[in-house]
Design a protein that fits this description.
Layout: H1 2-54, H2 56-59, H3 63-75, E1 78-84, E2 89-92, H4 105-111, E3 116-120, E4 125-133, E5 139-148, H5 150-200, H6 214-264, H7 270-300, E6 309-313, H8 314-331, E7 335-340, E8 345-349, H9 350-366, E9 373-380, E10 384-391, H10 413-419, H11 425-435, E11 439-445, E12 449-457
Parallel strand pairs: 7-9
Antiparallel strand pairs: 1-2, 1-5, 3-4, 4-5, 6-8, 9-10, 10-12, 11-12
Helix pairs in contact: 1-3, 1-5, 6-7, 7-11, 8-9, 9-11
Length: 462
């Protein structure tokens, strides 16, 4: 990570600088050469205006003009040739080719009215030809200028050396800065990795306490939140195992006590044996009920992909459930009332939903008063169907209503044991409803009864 940050910092800092430096130097060179050419052409124009009126192209022996030509040649550290229309060199500032003929491409182009510009990078020189025209635009001769551009390239090389020195200094600064920044960036990440490794070794209680950039702190907070949830999950698991052990052990303990009592009896009457065996049978049934509910919870804890979704008539489903539970209600003379406001077809898992609704209605019967009532209502809109289960029972204390959907939670443990409750029914119900992407709410008041409102989508949302 640190090397990656270092590489990126150097790349981002140095590469643009190199490109910018090269572009600047090239631009400077082009601009300087263009300016030099413009100056030379102006000098050529000035010389042209001096040469024609004096007849210099014929004689080549006018001291004042020779002095001016020499001055310009010295100024630009170069050589000037004056060629007449016979291609005869009338003046050479180097005095090497006076009187000779000059036939070159540049000279011929100038006699055709075109300026010639030749730039020699290798020898760092410029060669220009400038036509000498009279007032009628007739070309009478050509000025050939050979000048050095060495001073321009010397300045360019000096600038390039300074740019290299500056770049090297900048690279060093960037490396130092990148090492510092990469350390600042990677230290919190290293702490995160170390904390994750500790977490993977089982130290769930430590959590994260990492300060740094906002993103790192967000990672730390998210991980702390996850650890908190996992700690709660672990506590819930341990509590669940403890509750399961206790619930399974209680009937077995009762059976053992009853069996030991029978074994201690000598010549006990048959009626006593029947009574004890009846109690043992009830405890066995209770054990079986707990195991059945536990198996149901295990199955429901699987993914919703196990859902067997079909389109069914919810009205008929509720009628079947009420018919199945009516014998239990009749034992205590509890009236089962069914209200249906419209036909309802919905996509549900029939077996699981039947289990959930059955738990609600069965609880309404069990925790009711004698001669009471249970009202089951069904309604729907364009998106959801609603099932309401209300009773005239004993109600649920307000401080217990937030916990009734937890596993093994009982409002009245003594009464739950008498009625055969395991404390798992409402947990199963809520799980099933959530698997259908639904919701369940409870409204209750002690001594007045309880109402459960269930809302489930008509079309299953996968």
């Amino acid at each position: 990570m640190r090397m990656y940050v270092l590489f990126i910092s150097i790349f981002v800092g140095v590469v643009p600088l190199v490109f910018f430096t090269r572009a600047f130097l090239n631009t400077y060179e082009e601009k300087a050469i263009d300016n030099r050419i413009m100056e030379l052409e102006n000098q050529g124009k000035a010389l042209s205006s001096l040469l024609l009126p004096t007849g210099y192209l014929t004689t080549g022996q006018i001291p004042e003009i020779d002095t001016e030509i020499a001055r310009i040649a010295d100024l630009y550290e170069g050589r000037i040739l004056i060629v007449n229309n016979n291609l005869n060199i009338v003046k050479d500032t180097y005095s090497l080719e006076d009187g000779r003929y000059l036939v070159s491409k540049g000279v011929i182009q100038s006699f055709d009215g075109t300026n010639s510009r030749i730039r020699d990078r290798k020898n760092q020189s410029l060669r220009l030809t400038y036509p000498i025209m009279d007032e009628s635009k007739e070309i009478k001769g050509v000025i050939v200028m050979n000048f050095s551009s060495k001073d321009i390239y010397e300045i360019r090389n000096t600038l390039e050396q300074r740019a290299v020195l500056f770049s090297m200094t900048l690279v060093i600064l960037i490396v130092v800065f990148a090492i510092y920044i990469s350390g600042k960036l990677t230290k919190p990440l290293t702490n995160v990795v170390n904390s994750i490794n500790r977490f993977s070794e089982g130290y769930l209680e430590e959590g994260f306490s990492i300060k740094g950039y906002n993103e790192i702190e967000k990672i730390s907070d998210s991980f702390n939140h996850m650890i908190s949830k996992m700690n709660k999950l672990e506590s819930s698991r341990q509590e669940f195992v403890s509750n399961v052990s206790h619930e399974l052990k209680t009937p077995i303990t009762s059976i053992k006590v009853l069996a030991d009592s029978l074994l201690m009896q000598e010549d006990a009457p048959v009626e006593l044996y029947r009574e004890f065996l009846t109690d043992i049978t009830e405890e066995i049934e209770r054990e079986n009920k707990i195991i059945t509910d536990l198996l149901s919870l295990v199955k429901l804890d699987k993914k919703a992909g196990d859902m067997n979704i079909v389109s069914i008539n919810i009205n008929e489903l509720l009628e079947q459930i009420l018919k199945r539970l009516s014998p239990i209600a009749k034992k205590r003379n509890i009236e089962l009332i069914y209200e249906s406001f419209r036909p309802v077809l919905a996509e549900v898992d029939e077996v699981k939903l039947s289990l959930a609704i059955s738990n609600l209605i069965e609880n309404a019967i069990k925790y009711n008063v004698d001669d009471g009532w249970v009202r089951v209502s069904l309604n729907a809109d364009h998106k959801y169907f609603f099932v309401k289960v209300a009773d005239s029972g004993i109600g649920i204390p307000e401080d217990a209503q937030d916990f009734i959907f937890e596993r093994f939670y009982r409002v009245d443990k003594a009464r739950s044991r008498e009625s055969g409750g395991t404390g798992l029914g409402l947990a199963i119900t809520k799980n099933v409803i959530q698997m259908h992407r639904g919701a369940i709410r409870v409204y209750s008041k002690e001594g007045e009864g309880t109402t459960f409102n269930v809302r489930i989508p008509l079309n299953y949302i996968s």
